[in-house]
Amino acid sequence: MVFFVAVGTLCAICGALAFLLTLADRYLNDYGLCTISINAGERVFTTTGGDSLLTSLSQEQIFIPSACGGRGSCGLCKLKVLGGGGPLLPTETPHLEADEIKDRMRLSCQVKVREDMAIEIPEALFSVREFRACVTELTPLTHDIQLVRMELIDPETIDFTPGAYVQLQAPEYPDSPESVYRAYSVASDPRDTRHLDLIIRRVPGGICTTWVFDHLTVGQRVTFNGPHGDFEMSDTESEMIFIAGGSGMAPFLSMLLDMVQTQTTRPARYFFGAVNRRDMFYLDEMKEFEAKIPDFKFIPALSNPEEAEGWDGETGLVTDVVKAHYRDCSDKEAYLCGSPGMIDACVKVLTGLGMPEENIFFDKF
What would the DSSP string read from start to end of 268-336? Predict the structure, then answer.
């Protein structure tokens, strides 16, 4: 017990020191005005030094994809830094391949703007827009998952591909002195360009999810940017294996709504994992999809069902359920949405069943 207390105390001290160092860097060091040149001078702006490159770009309405809110855990905010930016940090190397490092790729959330910089970003990111919308519905789906439905105000419409995500802004509130962005997959029908649905799970201590669950109200106006991402269905006839859990339902709900409209005959199996019955949702909606999509099957699984729940479906880890349903996946494709650990476990199982890695597409959060 003493050991755990000591470790906990040490972690708290380290966390406090890191926080104080961040504050010191921001408020005690004056980096002055820094100029950032994008794509060989195609766009140039001046900013006050001290913030991350990701933050500095977002302040200029240039929205770089980031699924982790700038914490350095998703690796999505890569861009090329040709000048300035300082040395590569240990927090960046786990997300960069050797050829990317050689090509001067960096994580923009980890790079601090302390001097003039020259960077390169994909032209497509200049078309990412900021949207304002009104919350029209907040519906609990489980004890810790909520549907957030919004009607767009400015611009009034959005075009996206099923599987895309947006970055929702949580404004300042009593427990959060700064606004932050967090990435959430779109759960709505791409043909309904006036509305946007998000499925959000409460993360204990999470800045944005605390705001969504404890402060956000129907009628409130919100801001988000997007669409982002390239997690989308391929244009083939291969059988699709969807695997998700929790709020990972979102992109597949959008895909299924699209599949109904396109009247696809492509085979699809959706494995959805949860701990127990209270973590499961949209079961009736999945039955409707099974009736509307010719070769679609939904396979829910509980890893730890309670006897009183009377669950008669699949049990065990979702990866084990997948293994029980397939012997050979060499001619199939997989689409995964979940935590890094869940996705890594799924990739291991699928490749073990013969699926080529290039046939596995995923969205980590």
Answer: EEEEEEESSGGG---HHHHHHHHHHSTTEEEEEEESS--GGGT--SEES-HHHHHHHH-S--TT-EEEE
Cα separation of 348 and 51, whole Å?
38
Q: What 3 state SS string does 101-114 have?
A: HHCCEEECCCCECC
Strands of the chain, DSSP E = 33-38, 43-48, 78-83, 105-107, 117-120, 129-140, 145-154, 165-170, 180-185, 195-201, 221-228, 240-245, 268-274, 296-302, 314-315, 333-338, 360-364
Q: Quick one: CATH architecture of 128-228?
A: Beta Barrel (2.40)
CATH class of domain segment(s) 240-364: alpha beta
> pTM for this one?
0.82
Scan for tokens 């499925």, then name that residue.
199
Tokens of 67: 């699924």
pLDDT tens digits in sequence order for the chain, 365 residues long: 433 334 344 444 544 444 444 555 555 567 799 999 999 999 999 999 999 999 999 899 899 988 676 778 888 899 999 999 999 999 999 999 999 999 999 999 999 999 999 999 998 888 899 999 999 999 999 999 999 999 999 999 999 999 999 999 999 998 888 888 889 999 999 999 999 999 999 999 999 999 999 999 999 999 999 999 889 999 999 999 999 999 999 999 999 999 999 999 999 999 999 999 999 999 999 999 999 999 999 999 999 988 877 888 999 999 999 999 999 999 999 999 988 888 999 999 999 999 999 999 987 76
CATH number for the domain whose boundaries are 31-125: 3.10.20.30
51 neighbors 113 (Cβ within 8 angstroms): yes
CA distance 230 to 164: 7
- Give the start-to-end residue ranges of the domains of the chain: 31-125, 128-228, 240-364
CB under 8 Å to 128, separation ≥6 — which residues? Answer: 62, 63, 225, 226, 227, 228
What whole-number distance in Å separates Cα of residue 292 and Cα of residue 55?
A: 44
Among residues 151, 153, 114, 112, the alpha carbon closest in space to that of 135 is found at 151
Pairwise CA distance, residues 128 & 64, whole Å: 9
